[in-house]
Amino acid sequence: MRLAVAMLSLLLCxxxxxxxxxxxTVRFISGxxxxxxxxxxxxxxxxxxxxxxxxxxxxxxxLGAGGLVGAKWVxxxxxxxxxxxxxxxxxxxxxxxxxxxxxKELAPxxxxxxxxxxxxxxxxxxxxxxxxxxxxxxxxGKLNCATAxxxxxxxxxxxxxxxxxxxxxxxxxxxxxxxxxxxxxSGRADCYFALVxxxxxMKDAGKVDAHLVSGPKxxxxxxxxxxxxxxxxxxSAYNFWVGxxxxxxxxxxxxxxxxxxxxxxxxxPEIADRITKLGxxxxxxxxxxxxxxxxxxxxxxxxxIKKAGIRGN
Length: 313
Hints:
Layout: H1 2-20, E1 26-30, H2 37-53, E2 57-61, H3 68-76, E3 83-88, H4 91-97, E4 106-114, E5 117-121, H5 129-138, E6 144-147, H6 153-165, E7 170-173, H7 177-185, E8 192-195, H8 196-204, E9 209-214, E10 241-247, H9 252-267, H10 269-277, E11 281-282, H11 287-308
Parallel strand pairs: 1-2, 1-3, 6-7
Antiparallel strand pairs: 3-10, 4-10, 4-11, 5-8, 5-9
Helix pairs in contact: 1-9, 2-9, 4-11
C-alpha cells in the first residue's frame, strides 16, 4: 500500500512539473560550430519554439570531442527539460569511440532531419561508382579517400560502403569538410562522402563528379543519383540524422511535450522548407521509434568500428 501511494505521489509530481514546464529560458546546446547544418536547425527551432513553450529558447555552443563536450554538459544538468542537446548520428559513434559519456545518460526526444552524403570523386577520374570500386579492388589499400575526421558521418558513410562493396582504401582523415573537399578537388584523394549541398555546389562548378547517395533514399537536391543500395551494394547506406536529446530521467510528460512541439515544427511547411533548402530531409519519429533507431545504430556501429579498426581521436 505504501509503495503504491509513493508511486502515485511521484506520478502526480511529474505531471505537475510538466504542467508548469518550462519555468525559465530553455537552451538548445549545439556541439558544432555556428553555421553548420545541425546548428542551423537548432536555431530554426529555437526561433519558433519559444512561442509555444512560453519561455525564451536560445542556442548555446559547447564545442569539443565530436559533440561529446556539449552532450556531457546536458547529461549532468538537472533533468528538467531546460537543456536540450542538438546532436546528430555522431551520438551513436562518438560515445563508442571516446570514453566519458554513456549513451544511457541522454534520452531521445525528437528527430529533425536526415542529411544525405554523396560519393564524389575528382572530375573525369571515374565514370561511375562501379569504376571507382573496380579500381579500388584492383589496387587494395592504394587509393586515398578523404573524411572530415575519424568517426565523422563522412567517415562512417565511407566505411559502410567500403565494407558492403568489399574494397580497401587508405583513409585520409582531415580537420573538416572544407579540407576534405579540397583533397578531392585537387586530385590528392580519390573519393569523399560529402554532404549533399556541398556535393551539389562542387559538381555544378565542374570541380567533382558525383555518383551515389549514402542514405535511406534519394535526395531532392540531386534526384538523378541512385542510392548506394540501388547501385547494388546491400547494407551500404549510412543514416546521417539530426535530433534532440535531454538528460536521462527527465520526467516523461516533459519529454512528450517537447517531442510533440518539435515534431509539429518539423512538419510545418515553413520549417520543412527551410530544412529542405539546407539539403536535408525533414524527419519525424515517435520517441519509441527514435530510441529504437539509436539502439540499432549503437549495435551496428560497434560491429563496424571493431571490423574496420576505427579509433577515437
